[in-house]
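Below is a filled-in request sheet from our internal design queue. Each sheet records the structural input a requester submitted and the sequence that came back. We keep these sheets so that new team members can see what a complete request looks like end to end.

REQUESTER: design group, bay 2
PRIORITY: normal
MODE: inverse folding
CHAIN LENGTH: 246
BACKBONE (tokenized):
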């Protein structure tokens, strides 16, 4: 998993409108945290917690064709290459990120994705209570070798989402970034359909904390993925090679 900018020193131009939209969504979520009880930890229950998904903008979906700059934009969001980008400070809100690559099977592995999230959330320091939650026996058992591989969806819920819901909300909203979430997805007959990481996220969207913004990118041509995420990502941004919104 890349830990430095994929732009390799190059500058990204003409995408300020996208950053403004993302910044607005983060500010909107942050504002919602001031509502009474919004920052109180939520004790997990058998059904979807009442505090999950309360925000009016659950996620952002970046859609564009090949060459429209989706991956470059995600990289710039994480590792700003300009003084303006550094001043904007969006990278400081990143809880975790993941870049899917068709040529790298490890980046398409759902269990590897889940394990990576756990490690990054701990390192981020944005949710201080999270690391302590991981010490609970039930969570430790789910993180044992083989458990995540056998049932990554259950591990995602028990080791990522439910602990985050039970933590005190950060003072400002944070985001989870997924680039090329449509990579590795296979669609055909029902028995041949596999959406991998994309399906994992969409299936568990009701368990996302209200203070967590999901940002995903996908190719415009993959209508299955755009349809899957359009229902839960309120803000859908269409990118083109001419650098402006469609």
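RETURNED SEQUENCE:
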């Amino acid at each position: 998993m890349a830990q430095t900018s994929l732009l390799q020193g190059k500058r990204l131009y003409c995408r300020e409108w996208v950053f403004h939209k993302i910044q607005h969504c983060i500010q909107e979520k942050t504002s919602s945290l001031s509502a009474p009880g919004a920052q109180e930890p939520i004790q997990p229950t058998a059904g979807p917690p009442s505090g999950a998904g309360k925000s009016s903008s659950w996620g952002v979906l970046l859609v564009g064709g090949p060459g429209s700059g989706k991956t470059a934009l995600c990289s710039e969001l994480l590792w700003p290459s300009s003084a303006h980008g550094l001043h904007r400070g969006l990278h400081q809100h990143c809880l975790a990120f993941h870049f899917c690559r068709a040529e790298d099977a490890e980046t398409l592995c759902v269990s590897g994705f889940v394990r990576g999230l756990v490690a990054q959330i701990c390192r981020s320091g944005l949710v201080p209570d999270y690391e302590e939650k991981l010490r609970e026996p039930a969570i430790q058992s789910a993180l044992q070798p083989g458990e995540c591989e056998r049932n990554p969806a259950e591990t995602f819920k028990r080791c990522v989402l439910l602990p985050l819901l039970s933590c005190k909300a950060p003072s400002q909203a944070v985001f989870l970034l997924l680039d090329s979430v449509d990579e590795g997805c296979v669609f055909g007959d029902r028995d041949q359909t596999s959406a991998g990481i994309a399906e994992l996220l969409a299936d568990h969207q009701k368990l996302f904390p209200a203070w967590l913004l999901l940002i995903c990118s996908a190719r415009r041509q993959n209508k299955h993925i755009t349809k899957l995420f359009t229902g839960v990502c309120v803000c859908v941004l269409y990118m083109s090679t001419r650098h402006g919104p469609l």
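SHEET NOTES:
- Confidence is low (pLDDT under 50) at residues 53-57, 189-194.
- The radius of gyration is 17 Å.
FILED BY: M.R.
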